[in-house]
Amino acid sequence: MVEINKIREQFPILHQKVNGKPLVYFDNAATTQKPLSVIEALNTYYTKDNANIHRAAHTLAARSTEMFEDTRKTIQAFINARELEECIFTKGVTESINLVAQTWGRKFLQVGDEVVITCMEHHSNIVPWQMICEEKGAILKVIPINDSGELLMDEFDKLLSPKTKMVACVWVSNALGTINPVKEIIEKAHAVGAKVLLDGAQACSHLDVDVQTLDCDFLAISSHKLYGPTGVGVLYGKRELFEAMPPYQGGGEMIKEVSFERTSYNEIPYKFEAGTPNIGDVIAFKYALDFVNELGKENIRNHEKELLHYLVNGLLRLNETDVMSSGVETHHYASPQKTITLIGTAKEKVSVQSFIIEGMHHFDVGMMLDARGIAVRTGHHCTQPLMNRLGLDGTVRASFSVYNTKEEIDVFIEAVSKLVKK
């Protein structure tokens, strides 16, 4: 059971007023808030332990190095990586995907090879592949979706061939909340000899992660979606792939020996960790993972699922006609002036719900909600091709985390009801 009041006590940012109203933070898909343990860990590092890592014999450096590597051990356990060295620190999912595209892609893609992505990808899992495909003469293909925001797996089957070298797929859509069938995708991709990269930005705070069971080749994670600091990410990759890939950047730490004639490269993971990393934030990330582990993914998931159903029911009650949404009752109520349309009604979802209000621009809705202290995300959510497929220029997106409450949703529904009746 989630003890919501005790959880909320750990998040100081939630206890404030915005525009004279108590803050209701429903923008968790963009970034989650940080518990005190993370904030205090960052403060402790800079006030007591600040030193560069791996390169000095003094006490501060030894302490910092140990804590930095403790985070790597924690992430290894969190995703059940086979080896510690298969977890590389990056700036986030965006850098992780670029690293794979620019190293694995540059070495292994050839003219006529194919990379498959999905219609619901974030720009960070589209643009790097476009860039490397253009450079190498490879072809980018896209798995289409249905109107509910689910992948058309029959079409995916048709896209696969011996020419398919990489399938880069979002595990959970940031714009729709759709949970994609990644286990099936991985199995089908491997059957034709392709590698699979999963964008785990939205998945890892909601879903259980076991990279060995999934058998994915790469998994990209961002700390700030997992209650941790910004500017920190992890790229998981199978050892044999990392060892076959060239370095992403040159500099300190990623080398074994340097001369003016030649350079030999370090072992993984250091081969991909050039320069001084974001030490303090990596250390603090461990405390975010500890927070998730202590609560338990199942408890988090159950709480968020309950919130999602409560929100969807509330939005549907504002509508004039029967509206069907998977797992949600149908309601018939008196006609408002404006209709709410739910965007993204997949059968398998996390706690993300996008919607539009008839006759209102999504940005205006966001501003009006902000005036009431309610933080939501508006726009195309860095998924412009997805919005084009849906015939939209953007949506309003409410996304929940473990510290959100039904009472906050009541405030949100009341605010939306005033907008649809204007």
Structural topology:
Elements: H1 4-9, E1 17-18, E2 21-22, E3 24-25, H2 36-49, H3 59-79, E4 87-90, H4 93-108, E5 114-118, H5 127-136, E6 139-143, H6 153-159, E7 164-170, H7 182-191, E8 195-199, H8 211-214, E9 218-222, E10 233-237, H9 239-244, E11 255-258, E12 263-265, H10 279-295, H11 297-317, E13 340-343, E14 352-357, H12 362-370, E15 374-375, E16 377-379, H13 384-390, E17 395-399, H14 406-420
Parallel strand pairs: 3-15, 5-6, 5-7, 7-8, 8-9
Antiparallel strand pairs: 1-2, 4-10, 9-10, 11-12, 13-14, 14-17, 16-17
Helix pairs in contact: 2-10, 3-10, 4-5, 11-14
Keywords:
422 residues, 17 strands, 2 domains, Aspartate Aminotransferase, domain 2, single chain, alpha/beta, 7-stranded mixed beta sheet
Describe this structure in words.
Strands 4-10-9-8-7-5-6 form a seven-stranded mixed sheet, sandwiched between helices. The protein has 14 helices and 17 strands. The protein is globular, with a radius of gyration of 22 Å. The protein folds into two domains: 4-26 and 296-420, Aspartate Aminotransferase, domain 1; 51-294, Aspartate Aminotransferase, domain 2 (3-Layer(aba) Sandwich), CATH 3.40.640. It has helices spanning 4-9, 36-49, 59-79, 93-108, 127-136, 153-159, 182-191, 211-214, 239-244, 279-295, 297-317, 362-370, 384-390, 406-420; strands spanning 17-18, 21-22, 24-25, 87-90, 114-118, 139-143, 164-170, 195-199, 218-222, 233-237, 255-258, 263-265, 340-343, 352-357, 374-375, 377-379, 395-399.
